[in-house]
Amino acid sequence: MSDMKRVTENAGETARTERIAANLAELRSRISAACERHARSPDDVTIVAVTKTYPASDVRILAGLGIGDVGENRDQEAAGKAAECGDLPLRWHFVGQLQTNKARSVARYADVVHSVDRTRLVRTLGSRVRTENREIGCLVQVNLDPDSEVGELGTRGGVDPRDAMGLADEIVAEPGLSLGGVMAVAPRGEDPGASFARLRSTAAAIRERYPQATVVSAGMTGDMEAAIGQGATHIRVGTALLGARDANVG
Ligand SMILES: *Cc1c(COP(=O)(O)O)cnc(C)c1O
């Protein structure tokens, strides 16, 4: 590589680091403001940086800025990035819909799967995780859309709230898996605060039976304030940290 090219690349990387650092500072002040409104501590809200469509170099920058949790929604992309970033002290969160045939791969690198929404996935993940001699945390993904036909292909995933406790029981009973809590994506066309309030009551019911299930994964770039207002402990943020993704991906 020529000296000139190296200088240009370093300048690009510095600019990217500065951009992401500024975004992170702004995100932290949004979180603080929301926490203040709801008498919560910002220490109780973990940022899961969703890095889908962005390169491993961005994951490295985020880790350098103190981010410890990263999220991905597609196995192939996630597996590659997790391997490239194997030297970094990161927890990998799988947040996308998970096909059973990808369970083996996800079991190798994921620390937490946010999208557990059916019995068959619990069984398969458990068996793959045991083969890999690992343990992973699972969140019950709850479908908050009252109008969706649950189980219908093409929905955003999630179990009917009435079935969430049953799935939690199955996760707890599956060796290799631990129950971390619940996760949801707010449906379009409804006030996210109202949606997340339903998640909050499902989370409370599960926590009553399983006190270890403390995680409420809710809120993204557009609705994190509403989620924090309803008790989110983990917000999954991509756009606010890394910029808008192409409209046709992610
Ligand atoms: C992409 C994605 C996010 C992050 O969304 P942003 O709006 O970019 O913050 C959060 N959760 C899930 C499940 C996602 O797929």
Automatic annotation (TrEMBL):
Signal peptide limits: none
PROSITE patterns with a match to the protein in the record: UPF0001
Recorded superkingdom: Bacteria
Listed GO MF terms: pyridoxal phosphate binding
Domain Alanine racemase N-terminal: 23-245
Cofactor: pyridoxal 5'-phosphate
The name this protein goes by in its record: Pyridoxal phosphate homeostasis protein
Species per Swiss-Prot/TrEMBL record: Haloactinospora alba
